[in-house]
Amino acid sequence: MNRPTALVLHGGAGVLAERSYEREVAHLRDLAEEGKALLGAGEQAVDIAVKLVRAMEESALYVAGRGASPNTAGRYELDASIMEGPTRKAGAVAALEGFISPITAARVVMEATPHVLIAGAGAAEIARAHAIEEITDPENYYQPAAVPDGREIATGTVGCVVLDAHGALCGATSTGGTLRKRWGRVGDTPIIGSGTWADARVAVSCTGQGEFFMRANAAADVSARMRYLGSNLDEAVKGVLDDIAELGGDGGIIAVDSKGHVSAQYNSQGMKHAILHADGRIEAGMTR
Ligand code: ASP
C-alpha cells in the first residue's frame, strides 16, 4: 500500500520585504530534498523532523540555534519543542543555554523523562546527562542572523512538520525567540499547543510574535478547527491566523495533515519555507 508522505519547513515569518533570502530559501529547498530521500527510505517522522531542524539550528541562517540573538541580559536562551502525532508524546526545553541543538534536548525530554517541558538550568542538566553536544566556545559560536547587514528582523524561528510513510505525523519548532527579548522571556515555541502540535489528524509548527500565538493557543487550534468545525487544513490554518490578526499579532503557520495535504500561510510580509508535496514536488520561497 502506498501511503502519502509530505513535509513542510519554515525558517521564520519575520522577513524584511526588501532583503533577499536566496541563501535561506536554497538551504530550505536542499533540506526538503533531503527529507524526501529520508521519507522514501522509510525513516520515521520524528527522526526526520529532528534531523532537519538540527540542520537549521546549526546553519546560523535563522534566528534559532547558532543564528540566535542575545536577550537583553546578553545571554542566549533558546526554546524548542517536538510532538509526535500517534502517541501525542511531547517534549520541550525553555531558556536553554549552552547547547548546539535545542530540538535534540527537547526530544530527550519527550523520550527520556515523564515530563513535557523543562526550563533553564534543569533543562541544561538533563541535556548534559544525555550527552547532548555542548557549545565549547560560546563567545564565538553564535552568529546572530537577526541583524543581517545591520538591518534587523524581529523573528526567525525554524520548524518542520512531517507525515511519514507509516502514517505518523510529527511537528518540531526551535527558536532564539524574539529580538531583544527580556531575560527569562519564553515565547510560544516550547509551549505544546501554542508553537507546536501533532496528533492523529495534523502536525503544526508556528512562527511569529509568540505572545499572540500563546494567547490564541495557535497550533492546537488548527486541529480543533478541523475536528469541531470540519474545516479543511487550509481553512483551519487561515482561521487561526485571522484570530491572531484580530488580537493584533502576525506570523506564519505550517501544517500537514494525515492525508498528506500541506499548508504554509502567513499574515506577515513573508515566511521562508519549503514544501514537499505528496506528489513529490518541491516548492520553496519567501512568499506564496
Ligand atoms: N515565535 C517565536 C517567539 O515568539 C519567534 C519567531 O517565530 O521567530 O519566541
UniProtKB/TrEMBL annotation:
InterPro entries: Ntn_hydrolases_N, Peptidase_T2. It holds the Pfam family Asparaginase_2. This is Isoaspartyl peptidase/L-asparaginase family protein. The lineage of its organism: Bacteria, Pseudomonadati, Pseudomonadota, Alphaproteobacteria, Maricaulales.
